[in-house]
Amino acid sequence: MARVLVLLSLAMASLYVSQGSTLESQRLFNNAVARVQHLHQLAAKMMDDFDEALLPEERKQLGKIFPLSFCNSDSIEAPAGKDETQKSSVLKLLHTSYRLIDSWDFPSRTLGNPNHISDKLADLKIGISVLIERCVDGQTTLDEIDSLAPPFEDFYQTPSEGNLSKHFRLLSCFKKDMHKVETYLSVAKCRRSLDSNCTL
């Protein structure tokens, strides 16, 4: 009887530890999603403010540029579309989010300091790396995944582009990438949710 009680106590303790770990992961996911949502909102506002300051002809010309341009993130392998995103593992979504955020380490410095975007991106990157560590558990680690392709320092600073088009491209790509990361982290959070009815 005593042995049964000991085993029961150990099982209960293990359950409490497991629940505590799950709750902590949920807290980290909630925090990461909230941070990237804030960055996405900032990107959208910056884009709107930029657009409102344009002359009609400038707006027309720039509208033709972005659909034909490439963003920093285009060289980063990422799920395309809702179906592929839903089928991707939590770890893959986290890795992809990390890479997208990391690719803005240098370009974000040209977005302006008032919103402290570089600092916010750095905080989010740390949070995602913590989530990756908690999810790895014997799987491929971040260091074992192919590193980022070419250096991105001057990607958004093509000499042939005018200042207006460079700024437009920078803001458009930043908004696009923050939307991607928000989607990936939200899907990953939902997968790890204690709520069985979690849907996107």
Automatic annotation (TrEMBL):
- Note the SUPFAM superfamilies from the entry: 4-helical cytokines
Among the GO biological process terms of this entry, one is:
response to nutrient levels
Q: Where in the cell is it found?
A: Secreted
Instruction: Give an example GO molecular function.
Output: growth hormone receptor binding
Q: What UniProt keywords apply to this chain's record, in alphabetical order?
A: Disulfide bond, Hormone, Metal-binding, Secreted, Signal, Zinc
Q: Which InterPro entries does the UniProt record give? A: 4_helix_cytokine-like_core, Somatotropin/Prolactin, Somatotropin_CS
Q: Which residues form the signal peptide?
A: 1-20
**Is this entry keyworded Transmembrane helix?**
no
Q: Name one GO cellular component term.
A: extracellular space
Q: Mind telling me which PANTHER family this protein's record contains?
A: SOMATOTROPIN (PTHR11417:SF2), SOMATOTROPIN,PROLACTIN (PTHR11417)
The family classification in the record reads: Belongs to the somatotropin/prolactin family.
Q: What is this protein called?
A: Growth hormone
Origin organism of this chain? Rhamdia quelen
Q: Which gene encodes it?
A: gh
